[in-house]
Write a sequence for this structure.
DNA sequence: GTCTATAAAGGGATAGAC
DNA sequence: GTCTATCCCTTTATAGAC
């Protein structure tokens, strides 16, 4: 039984996007080639272009679902933060990894990241009180990025070997010190 | 009065290295071209190759002085840490920026960074007590990376606008919570 | 819808003149 | 020591056949 054009098309697209996410996450934008994506997806390089028009567009589409991970709504902010960190340290979605991997070298990725992080900072900042609310929010956000990079992208030994509970336990007072109201 | 060959050579080398550091710091390894380095240094592209043999070698030489910033010797660890952070947030040397900028996408840079960070983690860990000394050291190190990236490479608004004293004041209890002895 | 062929550009590296 | 000229490979992107 044959598939319709549309079915085949969207099936190819999905496979290409998946392959792209994986490679962008692994190698970053510059070192990922259309050819490699096509090979990984088991299709022809020209097909990738046919579907997405350009490498940049492919990147945008592959990454758009999950910019840099957000998800800090009011509530038990710290617990939410740790929860998010937990997600980050276990199974951060490939799209987010791709974003982070590329944000220091690819200008467009940097812009997206800045925008996404800005939103997150605003969200967290809105929950905090004090003149320095946004600054504290920015520091917390940066800290989360640092731990995520150390763990997921640089693969630092002690972080890789640690259980999530341990990291939780150690990071909680640290985040608390930064988020807790103070002059 | 003419300069000797050796003098001219080392003068060129210095200018090339300076230009390379700047561009690697700004754009990362992949997006920095030999041609651009040469233009920035006001020399011929071929001369760059003549001096350094390959782009990779140029990168290594440009970055070797200051891998990822270390400098955490025993003593008042936290104050040292903050001091280092202060340096990072004001005038981190271009070589270190180049290193950080490239460490997520350039495999060789990643290796160097891992090694340098590993040394730093060991140093900090040696000062701490408890089974989780190394893990705490790794977290502190990652935090410093995160704040530095947010400030220097991503240029997050609240961090750019903040004074060093403010950041100091906010980060101190945060680092203290992580470094202070506990079960 | 997918592939072949190829255009077009960019960039690392080399040989040799000056 | 430095520059000119150039090779050659890689990669994105396009045109058109099947």
């Amino acid at each position: 039984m044959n598939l319709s054009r549309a079915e085949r098309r969207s099936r190819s697209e999905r496979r290409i996007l998946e392959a792209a996410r994986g490679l962008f996450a692994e190698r970053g934008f510059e070192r990922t080639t259309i050819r490699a994506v096509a090979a990984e997806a088991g299709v022809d390089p020209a097909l990738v272009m046919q579907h997405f028009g350009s490498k940049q567009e492919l990147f945008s589409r592959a990454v758009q679902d999950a910019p840099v991970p957000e998800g800090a709504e009011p509530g038990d902010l710290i617990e939410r933060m740790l929860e998010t960190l937990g997600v980050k340290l276990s199974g951060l979605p490939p799209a987010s990894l791709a974003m982070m991997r590329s944000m220091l070298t690819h200008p467009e990725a940097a812009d997206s990241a800045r925008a996404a992080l800005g939103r997150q900072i605003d969200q967290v900042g809105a929950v905090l009180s004090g003149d320095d609310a946004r600054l504290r929010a920015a520091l917390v956000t940066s800290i989360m990025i640092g731990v995520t990079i150390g763990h997921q992208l640089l693969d630092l030994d002690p972080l890789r070997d640690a259980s999530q509970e341990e990291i939780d336990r150690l990071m909680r007072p640290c985040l608390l010190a930064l988020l807790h109201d103070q002059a």
Notes: The two ends of chain B are 70 Å apart (CA to CA).
